[in-house]
Amino acid sequence: MKRIFLALAAALAWMADAGASGGYGPDYTMFKAWSAPDIPLERFQAGELGVPQPGMQRVYLYTAWRAIALGRGVASSPGLAGGLARADGSAFGHGWKGAGTEPDPALAARLATLLHLPPGDPALRKLGACAPASTDHALGVFRSASARADATPARLDAWVLAQYRVGEACQAADDWRYRYGSDKPPALTAPAPLAVGEPAYWRQLNDYQRAAWAFQSAHYADSTVLFERIGATPGHPMRELGAYLALRSEVRNAVAADIRKVDPARREQQARALEQRGGAILGDASLASMHEPTRALLRAMRAGLTPETRLRELNRYLDNPAADPYALDRLGDWAILVDSAGTQMPDLQTGHDFIDWIETLRGCRGRTAAMACPLAAAHAGERWQQTRSHPWLVAALMLAESAPPALLEAGLALEPGDPGYVTVRYHLARLLRLGGQPGQARAIADALLQRKLSPGTRNLFREERFAVATSVRDAGMYLLRTNVDHARMAPEAREDMINDDGLDWLNGGLPVTDLIDLAGLASLPQALRARIAGAAWIRASLLDKPEQGRQAGALLAQLVPSSADAVARHGRATTAVERRHIVLAAALRFGLAAQIGMSAEPVAPVAPGEATASGWCSFRPGSRLGEVVPVGEREARGFGWRFPAMPDTGHAPLRQQELARLRSMKTATGTLGDDVMAWAARHPADPELPWLLYVVVQSTRGGCLDPDAGSLSRKAYTLLHKRYGGSEWAARTPYYY
User: Fold this and answer.
1) pLDDT: is 188 or 345 the higher one?
2) Is the C-alpha dihedral spanning 318, 324, 328, 333 positive or negative?
3) Cβ within 8 Å of residue 590, ≥6 positions away
4) What would the pLDDT profile of 38-75 be if each residue is shown by its tens digit?
């Protein structure tokens, strides 16, 4: 019972439970709104859904189901005033605004003097260890008390010390949640009661602190009695809080028990008794300020004490999309309860359409997606056939890998103003592409990309448009994506990163001539164009294609003027060995690689001591700059739902011919090492050799290596020290391993 109780913080809740937002998808989901919308929640509630994902938390999938079921009417339906932000916990900081706020400096200074502690001592932070609302309330009490005519240093000191004891209990309660093994709770000191002769006001403040300490220390019977006494005392400064806090002590005591060991009938009896106590508060007009917190507390009590009853009640209510799911935070309560339902979910699916819809989509995610998706798709298709409802139309299209004509026809008939329209159009484009109709897929993607879309939604349509590109330059127009996580934090985030589809295409789908063509595309960022030109230059040298090497080099020199000297040397070279050596050395100096990474940093000279041979690991399918992942294993390793497809831009025979040769080559470290050792035998006076030998040794100390890396390192080290022992680079290479 976490986020439910967060609603009580606004009413001086002392409960320490805190929620957290939900999970992560695969790496590639940095380009998708995978677990949560990247659309403002008010607009998402009103039907601007983008393209919902199976990995989304249930509160968002329910909101999508409701919007699609209501159609255009969702925009005028009740519950659009911050309801989803309350349901998902973001209105409360996802529970992260819990205990641990900084204590007031004046209080901390006074406590430091009392306890003889230096300023800044960690113990002083316990003054702020309770929930922020409670800490703020306590500070307000202290300031009011300090302004009284009968405030004396001794009375204020006693209040501060007692508040410190309360903070100690809050801290201990929070720490106890993270206990390990046989840890035992610490022995705590209760606030000392004030002398009977002290004025009533100061004794009443002390009574409240002792009641709060008892509550935080889990002495609920004591805290209930103390809070009840406060609520029954006319004129008590905390009287309005007394009955409510006594009820909360009773609720905490009931919920703290292991409900699995308590008979359901007994729990129902307890719940009704607590509701009766709460009803007394709700019936007292003098306690009006505590009515809403009491209602929230009773809902939280039901969820914690009789979750089965509460869940059945919420399921019935939420099954009607026209009902307001955000009233009384019903959707938020439901999400927490259903997340803990576990094995009950299949039973719930059979009785409630919205749960069936949500769980069908959520079943098509995670490690088992490859097995679960076909079953989920078949079920969604059957439900659409049975109901012909818009939600099941959307689900059937979302999960399908191929679609019967009737399903496609129904999707194409959906009107532009429908909340499911963008989702349906995306999946239509995907299914038409898979069905061998790239022209129609292109038309759908082009039309939707004219709209103002969220970054995650725009990425998805760019994926589809990229996959059906008609040429290298056409594909280049849709190559880049926006990092959705960056866009959440910085609205000005740009399309400047490359997803798996683009990486596969750049690193395994293009021959050198196409890379050169792509590097000439002016609409791409200059840094990326330079990286692509550099990759083409390296590959041309490895494949001994001098004319293409000169073209790539000329483009690189234009984009990176500081590389012009190396490019000119390459142009004057007369042999393949010389051209390759010049390019490999230049690649080190400028950090160039034969493969493109996810983001392109500007090409600039690398400090000589920082250079390494990291231009490629392998050209085998599925490889990346840092590792080699066989294509068939990516989904299992990446928790993937669907990986985007790369386009077929022609030149397949030439591409395969080049890749076959590149795949047989060593890693960048091995290729450089062999080249440098051979070069040293022919050109022993080359002044670059000491540095190059140093780089070879450094490069064998990590990253992607060949089986003979150890032998190569020893050879390079030996030659460096034997022939160039007095050089700076020999001094910086004391070991060969």
Assistant:
1) 188
2) positive
3) 534, 560, 562, 563, 566, 603, 604, 605, 606
4) 999 999 999 999 999 999 999 999 999 999 999 999 98
Residue 680: which of 654, 719, 731, 633 has the closest Cα?
719
pLDDT at 620 over 80: no
Four-residue CA torsion sign, 327, 329, 333, 335: positive
Neighbouring C-beta atoms of residue 695, cutoff 10 Å: 27
CA-closest candidate to residue 364, choices 354, 353, 379: 379
Residue 605 pLDDT exceeds 70: yes
Q: For the chain, what's the residue count?
A: 737
Closest-CA residue to 69 (of 320, 339, 312): 320
> Is 395 in contact with 361 (CB distance < 8 Å)?
yes
**Matching residue, tokens 């080290």:** 717
Is residue 365 a contact partner of residue 54, using CB atoms and an 8 Å limit? yes
What percent of the chain shows pLDDT beyond 90?
A: 70
Look-up: residue for tokens 């001994």? 544
Which residue reads 């998708």 in tokens?
32
- Which amino acid belongs to residue 649? T
Q: Quick one: how far is CA 156 from the chain centroid? A: 46
Instruction: Identify whether the C-beta of residue 551 lies closer than 8 Å to the C-beta of residue 534.
Output: no
| Tokens describing residue 176 | 């106890």
Bridge partners of 480, per DSSP, are 498
639 by DSSP, 3-state: which?
coil
The tokens describing 46, both together, are 């009103």
Q: For residue 356, is pLDDT > 70?
A: yes
Q: Which of 81, 87, 90 is nearest to 63 (CA)?
A: 87
Number of H helices, E strands in the chain: 36, 2
Q: What pLDDT digit, counting tens, does each position of 70-101 carry?
A: 999 998 888 778 889 888 887 766 544 444 56
For the chain, give the mean pLDDT.
88
**Which residue pairs from 196-201 have beta carbons closer than 8 angstroms and sit at least 24 positions apart in sequence?**
198/155, 199/150, 201/145, 201/148, 201/150, 201/237
What would the pLDDT profile of 357-406 be if each residue is shown by its tens digit? 999 999 887 656 667 788 999 999 999 999 999 999 999 999 999 989 99
Please report the sign of the dihedral spanned by the C-alpha atoms of residue 72, residue 77, residue 79, residue 81.
positive
Q: Which two tokens stand for residue 368?
A: 């088992």
- Cross-strand bridge partners of residue 628: 623
Cα radius of gyration rounded to whole Å, the chain:
34
pLDDT of residue 257: 75
